[in-house]
Amino acid sequence: MAHDLIHDPNGGMPRLLEIMRRLRDPQTGCPWDIEQDFDSIAPYTIEEAYEVADAIARSDWGELEGELGDLLLQTVYHTQMGSEAGHFTFDSVVKAISDKMVARHPHVFGDESRDKSAEQQVSDWERIKAAERAGKAQTRTLDGVATGLPALTRAVKLQKRAARVGFDWPDTSHVIDKIVEEAGELVEARDKLTQDEVTEEFGDLMFVVANLARHLDIDPEAALRATNAKFTRRFEAVEDALADIGKTPADSDLAEMDALWDAAKLAEKQKIMSD
């Protein structure tokens, strides 16, 4: 019966769960899959989430379908290991998230009115989450902000939590002043202090830049991803221009490449204006 399910193209979620169970079977499973644990699989989970985000950013819906499947597999992998260890099951995970969504949306699934602003709904959401944290004995303001988040994302979440209790600058001018201050401290550290101290000052500067992003309602991770993509696109244009004259970046110099960079930048702007 299980064999038939595994080879049934319409087997749906039960099929995927059975495939993972078989892969992890100590006697007949895949040696690599059997050896894995939560720690070894966690990096793949993070990687797959980023690949989902990348497919969305490129509007590649065909690839997104596959990437969502890869991400779903990560959930199935973790729940199979959790089931083997007696921690939880796929069904208990589904129940927990379903219960959470119902509890956090009383204006949809309960008696509360839906006649409220988006800001009020966000406020209510945070109030419900705070109550949940209190139930888990997470009573400090910054409790529950996952340490495994990308550093810029975690910085923003920490700052948002602190801001809720009044620990925040009133406007962006104060944040920009702090960026100038931290940049000065970084320059001083570079000239006079140890590498560890320089690293610390650099971290301080990045933290304040993340704070500016928060005040400007910008996702710093998304902004940096966009800039990475822009840099890649323009540098490849530089490489292409050099290739047209039989050269590579290694054969060029900074002045030439900088001029080609400016040309690529101008071409992009002209294309945007003509579209």
What does this structure look like?
- The protein is mainly α and 275 residues long.
- The chain is 75% helix and 0% strand.
- The N and C termini lie far apart (57 Å).
- The mean pLDDT is 91.
What share of the residues does DSSP label as strand, in percent? under 5%
Number of helices: 13
Task: Estimate the helix proportion, in percent.
Answer: over 70%
Distance between the termini: 57 Å
Average pLDDT confidence is: 91
Structural class: mainly alpha
Supply the CATH class of the largest domain: Mainly Alpha
Instruction: Name the CATH homologous superfamily of the largest domain.
Output: MazG-like
Radius of gyration (Å): 25 Å
**Parts with pLDDT < 50 across at least 5 consecutive residues:** none
Order of helices and strands: HHHHHHHHHHHHH
Largest sheet: none
- Let me know the number of strands: 0
CATH topology grouping of the largest domain: Helix Hairpins
* CATH architecture descriptor name of the largest domain: Orthogonal Bundle
Shape: globular
Family: Belongs to the nucleoside triphosphate pyrophosphohydrolase family.
GO molecular function, one term: ATP diphosphatase activity
Domain NTP pyrophosphohydrolase MazG-like: 36-109, 176-236
Protein name: Nucleoside triphosphate pyrophosphohydrolase
In terms of topology, how is this protein built?
Blueprint: H1 2-6, H2 12-23, H3 31-35, H4 38-57, H5 61-85, H6 90-104, H7 106-109, H8 118-135, H9 151-164, H10 172-192, H11 195-215, H12 220-244, H13 254-274
GO biological process, one term: response to stress
GO molecular function, one term: ATP diphosphatase activity
EC number: 3.6.1.8
